[in-house]
Amino acid sequence: MSQDLGLWTVPLAVIGGAIRVSTPFLFVSLGETITERAGRINLGLEGTLVFGAMAAYATAVVTGSPWAGVAAAGAAGAGFGLLHGLICSLPRVNDVAVGIALMLFGIGLAFFLGKPFIQPSAPPLPAIPFGFWSDLPQVQAALRVNVLFLVGAALSVALWWAFRHTKAGLVVRVVGDSAEAARAMGYSVTRVRVLATMAGGVLAGIGGAYLSLYYPGSWNEGISSGQGLMAVALVIFARWNPLACFGAALLFGGAGALGPALQSVGVSSGYYLFYAAPYVLTLGLLVATSSPDRALAGAPGELGLSR
Amino acid sequence: MVADTAASRIAVVPRRPSAAVQVMAWLARRTEAVAIPLGAVLVGLALFSLFLLALGKSPAALVDLVWRGGFSSAFALQNSLQRAAPLLFAALCVALPARLGLVVIGGEGAIMLGGLAAAVVAPPLSAAPAPLVVGAMALAALLAGAVWIGAVGALKAYRGVDATIASLLMSYIAIAIANHLIEGPLRDPTSLNKPSTLPVGDANMLGPMPGLGVHWGLGAGVLACCLAWLLMERTTLGFSARIAGGNVRAAQIQGLPVRRLIVGFTALGGACAALAGFFEVAAVQGNANATLAAGYGFTGILVAFLARHNPLAIPPVALALGGLEASSGLIQRRMQLPDATILVLEGLLFLCLLVGETAYGRFKIFSPHLWASKKEAAA
């Protein structure tokens, strides 16, 4: 019994989609914020995301518990982060190139190990129906919010607070802004950066678990189409601020939901163009917020990207 | 670096080294540039063998299948060379901007757009003589690729947008636009199962190279690599680009047109990648369709890094990886391994190669100064 909402369906679907699609963006961008705040850039999070999706799905199929899947994805992400962190600690190794290599390696390994798990179905992550007050199925569908989205939202506030008010947050920022200053204070720059890259990997892996265990909710080789990389661009747009990452992730999620939303009301021509909306948005925001002459406001001083 | 300063401290009175010493020093440097990537590849292969052993598969069987599938017979070699051709162009799309310190990874999109541009200009010109049509197709592809990747360079030069991220986003956008056009406005209504553009016409197809049985993309690609080497190593332009890639500020103080260099080199790289698309359409497919995005752009990144962005090293590396990918089907069937096996191996090789970067200058045996001082001691 669905009432005809007419064109209201589109904005409603976009809002619901923003909540649903934004979660991987949110986790990856929060992870990348931690890594970049420590002065490294990890472009390999796209690979971590895909591998996390595979690891979560496979673990959930085998154990029957989606949360075990999330844990496995986080652990796998930590492994990839550790690998990136350690390789980049060697002298004269370029972190951007290592990121690209890890992206290809992570995706390849995920496809390789994930081959047997394309068929079986895994238990999905639970969602909370915040739309219970409405009779409209569209509203109910839009407001079914996954637990991981709430975790991500809480995490962005916690990280924002931690960067300002905790010792660990300050150490990460000092290492990212001036390795010399950190060394003078007696902190090991390498150790902090490796740990920050690992933390970033954990979050990216969990973002992947969301992809395979909730939305779209299956494991296949087309599960991610550059979300991990867009999230890296999103961090620049959000100026390395976890709270801004949350808003930016919602915006990107909305853009990503535009294609399916328009399709649901019968707009089927230009299918591919609507799916390109998040890429165009990312590029547009990068162009609008970059500057050729000065370093970006809020950019960590040691970050190669902003130099 | 340490060896440098130590040697300069010992050599108080600078003497002109003899020719033999110069040759030895040159040889030592060259050997290092070959030995370290080769060593990294061997380490990568060893790690991959362990991975296979852990899965209960035989690494020796894999090597045998790669040899049989990629190199052992004339037919296998033809197949490998056919796959190497687009890799040559895709690798140049990475190697040329790399001279300026830019990591461009969006070649896949330029290949797709180049192929589409080539396929689009052919049908309206169907009355024209074949060489003219083929020339127009190549030109259209060159322009499309140059504009697309050149735009990445322009964004970097004039807006400071990171070229790695921008090029990948541009690649996704290019593939989306191309798929939209191929399935929509430009679709050949008779292509039912596999949406394609109108065929370019049999008369306009490029034949094989005489004696090789491989299409002309291979010859053109090798030529493009040679020309790129000349541009990089033997022209003022290439030298300026190297300075700008090493130190932007120094280049600006020297009055070098850094921004125009960036746009020029990225546009040239894009044009190269687009040629891969042109040859796929004009020599293999006969029209533009979704299979143009077959991953050559991504393998090309690996080829360029393995060749250390040296255009003359690109053809042998492209042949090796072309052979590896040509044997993929055989590996799948005979060893019951997934098609991603080659991806895992390629990723592992890429990682080992980058780790190897740290080894340069670490081995005394490759130090030109070691050879210089030995000779002097003997004399």
UniProtKB/TrEMBL annotation, chain A:
Q: What is its main location?
A: membrane
Q: How does it sit in the membrane?
A: Multi-pass membrane protein
Keywords, ordered alphabetically: Cell membrane, Membrane, Transmembrane, Transmembrane helix
Location(s), subcellular: Cell membrane
Instruction: Write out the GO MF terms.
Output: transmembrane transporter activity
Which Gene Ontology cellular component terms are annotated?
plasma membrane
Q: Where are the transmembrane segments?
A: 6-31, 43-61, 67-89, 96-114, 141-163, 192-213, 244-263, 269-288
InterPro entries (alphabetical): ABC_transp_permease
Task: Tell me the Pfam families matching this sequence.
Answer: BPD_transp_2
Q: What is this protein called?
A: ABC transporter permease
Q: What is the lineage of its organism?
A: Bacteria, Pseudomonadati, Pseudomonadota, Alphaproteobacteria, Hyphomicrobiales
TrEMBL record, chain B:
Q: What is this protein called?
A: ABC transporter permease
Principal location class: membrane
Mind giving the lineage of the organism this protein is from?
Answer: Bacteria, Pseudomonadati, Pseudomonadota, Alphaproteobacteria, Hyphomicrobiales
Species of provenance: Methylobacterium terricola
Give the residue spans that cross the bilayer: 34-55, 75-95, 102-122, 128-151, 163-182, 214-232, 261-284, 290-307, 340-360
UniProt keyword terms in alphabetical order: Cell membrane, Membrane, Transmembrane, Transmembrane helix
Parts forming coiled coils: none
GO MF annotations, alphabetized: transmembrane transporter activity
Q: Where in the cell is it found?
A: Cell membrane
